[in-house]
Amino acid sequence: VSIVLEEWAPRVYRFALRLCGDRHAAEDLTQETLLRAWRQRGRLRDQGALRVWLFRITVNLWNDELRRGRLQVAAAGPLSGDEAAPAPSPEKLAAGREELERALRVLAELPPRQREVLYLSTCEGLSSADVAEVLGISTDAAKANLALARKKVRQQLPEQFSDPSPARSRDP
Amino acid sequence: MNPTPCQSLDDYLAHDLTGEPLRRFSAHLATCAECAQAVRDNERLQALLVEAVQLEPVPPDLMQHLQRRMRVRRRRFMVAAAILAAAAIVAWLAWPGTPPDEPKPQQAQNGAGSNPLPREVPVAVEPVRVRFPPGSGVVAVREKIDSPNITFVWVYPGQRGVSEPAMAASPLSPERNEP
Fold first, then answer.
1. CA distance A75 to B85
2. Each residue of B115-148: pLDDT tens digit?
3. DSSP SS3 for A145
4. Which among A95, A161, B151, B159 could disulfide-bond with B172, CB atoms 3.0 to 4.6 Å apart, if both were Cys?
């Protein structure tokens, strides 16, 4: 169990951070997610679906919190709470820390749905169908939000891309 | 109608292509500079975001908190299970049991030496001995009572001569209804 937790706790936490935008709330949400998953582990038939299942629990718990009115949707802007920790290596500190922090800010400033979709697709590599299942939306909505999110990030970080608005893209 | 390879770009970027469509689009990338550039841009975006989110520290005590909460919940579950088990055992021991069957005439006529009451209930409160005269031919039938501390026994003087039953004093312990 602890091996599974050690592997998944950081990933669930980072996804929770995208939902909450607050480190303390994300930590609570991560703990609740993994506790519920642990209690309901018998329901998971397909181990290959573990990731989607965990993220789905995270979203459900987060929606419950929102319904109770205890928390609010993550506001646009940098994450609240502690400052970001030092980068893993001195090289990264020297070379690209500012660039990475800027990317984080751009990600945090996206509308919540676009941020969630972009994170799940880009950082977790989920397909549109899996993203849709996690977030409880249609596959088309997942694709549309992903395209919008990519477009906004390209506009915000033009220096990172060869062409901020490539002609071939079907982004709206 | 099958989409042209370039129309599969978004599906490719969204990880929606598998099997033959994926193979076809991968081959297409070698010949289409624009799609290849879009894929490279997406890979750059992916690398940037993956690296950026690594900057966010996972709380160092997250695992400790989680494992502590799991231990607490497991302990609570064990305590609750133990309490339930104990309650079940107590209830089983204290249960007055099923009412005794009406004694068969042959058993009832065994006189003072017979004991028609079940031996498993109730828990004895105070031992009481009731002795019937030898050869009296009484029939003792226990009455079901909710209280485990009280036992009512209907005593029938016998088949001949007396038709109305008399009630014995209480408390009685059934196993003490000895001659």
1. 49
2. 555 555 555 556 667 777 777 777 777 777 777 7
3. helix
4. B151
Backbone angles phi, psi at A46, to 5 degrees: -110, 110
R_g (Cα) of chain B, nearest Å: 42
The pLDDT of residue B77 is above 90: no
CA distance B66 to B23: 43
DSSP B36-78: HHHHHHHHHHHHHHHHHHHTSPPPTTHHHHHHHHHHHHHHHHH
Contact list in A for residue B13 (CB cut-off 8 A) is 146, 150
CB contact under 8 A, B34 and A167: yes
Q: Do A5 and B46 touch (CB under 8 A)?
A: no
Please give the distance of CA A77 from its chain centroid, rounded to a whole number: 15
> DSSP H helical segments within A69-127, as ranges?
90-109, 112-118
Smallest CA–CA distance from A101 into chain B, residue: B52
- The DSSP letter of residue B100 is P
Is residue B109 within 8 Å of B61, Cβ to Cβ? no
Could you tell me if A72 lies within 8 Å of chain B, comparing CB atoms?
no
Q: With pLDDT > 90 as the criterion, what percentage of chain B qualifies?
A: 19
Structure tokens at B120: 């498993």
Judged by CB atoms closer than 8 Å, whether chains meet at B57 and A96 is answered as no
Q: Quick one: tokens of B97? A: 């049991």
- The answer to whether the Cβ–Cβ distance between B48 and A146 falls below 8 Å is no
Question: Hey, are the CB atoms on B46 and A101 less than 8 Å from each other?
Answer: no
- pLDDT at residue A171 in the model: 46
pLDDT digit string (tens) for A36-93? 988 888 888 877 888 999 999 999 999 998 888 765 555 444 444 444 444 455 655 5
Three-state DSSP state, B140: strand
